[in-house]
Specification:
The chain contains 12 helices and 25 strands. The protein starts with a helix and ends with a helix. The chain has 540 residues and is an alpha+beta fold. 30% of the residues lie in helices and 31% in strands. The longest helix is centred in the first third of the chain and has 30 residues, at 90-119. Helix 9 (179-204) runs antiparallel to helix 10. The protein has helices spanning 2-8, 20-31, 34-47, 49-53, 61-70, 75-81, 90-119, 144-157, 179-204, 462-481, 521-531, 534-539; strands spanning 134-140, 161-162, 171-176, 206-213, 225-227, 235-238, 250-254, 258-261, 271-282, 288-293, 299-301, 304-321, 326-331, 335-336, 343-349, 357-364, 367-370, 373-376, 385-393, 413-415, 425-429, 433-436, 441-458, 485-493, 505-513. It is elongated, with a radius of gyration of 38 Å.
């Protein structure tokens, strides 16, 4: 009873209950299992889907702002989930890191097992080769040692590794296909290499976008110039290890922009080719060079790549105030709203007198009336027309709050009315000028200048990622086409027994395909032919 009382105070565990150390060990085993790695890889692929469907702030801030304006109810939810910057979000980084840990924890033990297998000898000859799925036996008059030596020679020629010492009956053990597991390891390591490459590019690289006006030699319009400095970008997403000193110094000017449109067939109205001739200079003292910037043909300057990713139109608009002074003049970037290049834009002239003037509306590249509705029938500039509402008063530019150049704040402004008392809407064709009522001034539509959107980026880990992809292909080929096989050959003397064919030595050959599912009949026949010496006779 005293012993029972002493032991009754000891802590007891329920069946299946794990301690802290055991729980940690179990969690580590689950995390580093191949099944978990595959699940995490699938989750990473699924997590990247929003990044390709939802506009990303680091890629195109303009598109993000347009999406937010079009979906005001979903925007707070998406912002809380980090869907406008998927690859920088905490949940995406968590999946990324867990996958890295899982792969490393899975590969290291497998590598140690593979290293031991490389040093180990092929298994000894089984006692009963007839149980193997691929087996044959025959009798010969050759001595046992002659048969076994012939087996060793034939298997070495076929690049089998032989067992040095046999523990079973007199015979030969051979094995090949060790590189299959090596291919599996290379494939899994390549996934880590690809992930590291993307991580390096995300940390030490950057990506930015900018709209640059393109020149128009036919109308004498000069193209815009871009200098590779942080302040020159419309949107910039640098990595956490990327500094201002890491920008490659260069400038470029977009001299022209040429589009080849398809005018016939079902694809009419789509572009077949884009070409933006540019003049660029590396550094401050570099010589001027030219390059035709095209889609999927980026310009590489140092470690930086310049991509052509979009284009549009910038109407040249002049706004004069009531005193006849120019309050606003120049090309105004309008953003395409659909494939027909119906484009939206705003004009702000805060210095106009007697009151500030604001315009917002659309550009029709090829304007026509169809069934009483204004439409653009082709994305090219065939009959350009701008249609804009007019506002005057406070445009919100004096509040000190940053404002998008593509948004007109009309909360404090007053709409300008026409003679009928409705809000004035200007419909201007190219070259036209309209006087505004109440002595506000005039608006002129002078020209149209094309613009291009370029993406500029540094991806220092792309070579690493490419190497990982190549490794993955090599490893996958090795794991698919290399067949691990084992061959056993035994020979024993028949003493005191009569043979139907008069042979004195019984030879047995067994073959095992460790990957399963292979038809080894031809392989077995080749080995038997080599043992019987028929292979040399056929070659002779």
């Amino acid at each position: 009873m005293s012993d029972l009382r002493q032991h009754s105070d000891l802590p007891t565990r329920r069946p299946g209950e794990l301690g802290a150390r055991e729980l940690a060990r179990w969690a580590w085993r689950q995390l580093t299992s191949m099944r978990t790695a595959l699940v995490l890889l699938l989750l990473l692929a699924l997590a990247a889907v929003p990044g390709s469907v939802i506009p990303q702030s680091g890629v195109d801030a303009l598109e993000v702002s347009q999406w937010k304006e079009a979906h005001p109810n979903l925007t707070p939810v998406y912002e809380r989930l980090g869907l406008f910057s998927v690859y920088d979000s905490a949940w995406f980084s968590a999946i990324y890191l867990l996958l890295m840990i899982s792969l490393v924890g899975c590969i290291i033990p497998r590598t140690l097992v593979y290293a031991r297998a490389l040093r180990a000898q092929p298994p000894a000859v089984p006692r009963n080769l007839s149980r193997l799925p691929d087996h044959t036996a025959y009798e010969t008059d050759d001595d046992v040692e002659v048969v076994l030596e012939r087996a060793r020679t034939a298997l070495r020629r076929k690049r089998y590794r032989l067992r040095v010492a046999d523990d079973g009956p007199a015979g030969v053990s051979a094995e090949k296909g060790y590189l299959r597991e090596f291919g599996n390891l290379v494939f899994h390591i390549s996934v880590i290499v690809v992930l590291v490459g993307f991580a390096v590019g995300s940390l030490r690289g950057y990506q930015g976008g900018v709209i640059v006006l393109a020149g128009n030699p036919s109308s004498g319009l000069e193209g815009g110039t871009f200098s590779n400095t942080p302040a020159s970008y419309d949107d910039l997403d640098p990595g956490s290890l990327f500094g201002a000193d890491d920008f490659d110094p260069f400038t470029f000017t977009v001299d022209d922009f040429d589009i080849t449109w398809l005018t016939e067939g079902s694809a009419a109205g789509t572009a077949r080719e884009f070409r933006a001739p540019i003049t660029y200079r590396e550094g401050l003292d570099g010589a001027e060079q030219t390059y035709d910037l095209r889609v999927n043909h980026p310009l590489s300057i140092g470690d930086t790549d310049v991509f052509l990713i979009g284009h549009g139109y910038a109407p040249v608009i002049t706004v004069r105030d009531g005193d006849g002074e120019v309050a606003y003049q120049g090309p105004t970037v309008f953003l395409p709203q659909d494939p027909s290049f119906l484009s939206f834009g705003v004009v702000k002239a805060p210095s106009a007198r007697p009151g500030a003037i604001g315009l917002e509306g659309v550009l029709y590249p090829s304007f026509e009336f169809i069934d009483g509705n204004p439409v653009t029938v082709f994305p090219a500039l065939a009959n350009p027309l701008i249609s804009m509402n007019v506002w005057t008063g406070d445009l919100g530019l004096d509040d000190g709050v940053p404002q998008s150049v593509y948004v007109l704040d009309t909360s404090g402004a007053t709409p300008v009315d026409d003679a009928d008392g409705t809000q004035l809407r200007l419909d201007l064709q190219l070259g036209e000028t309209v006087q505004l009522p109440d002595g506000l001034g005039s608006v002129s539509f002078d020209d149209v200048q094309p613009w291009v959107r370029v993406q500029i980026s540094q991806s220092p880990g792309k070579e690493v990622a490419l190497g990982g992809v190549v490794l993955a292909l090599l490893g996958l080929l090795g794991s698919l086409f290399i067949r691990p096989r084992r061959v056993w050959v035994t020979a024993r003397r028949r003493e005191g027994e009569e043979s139907d064919r008069g042979g004195a030595t019984m030879v047995e050959v067994g073959l095992l395909d460790r990957s399963g599912g292979a038809d080894l009949t031809d392989v077995l026949d080749e080995i038997v032919a080599a043992l019987q010496g028929r292979a040399e006779e056929e070659k002779a």
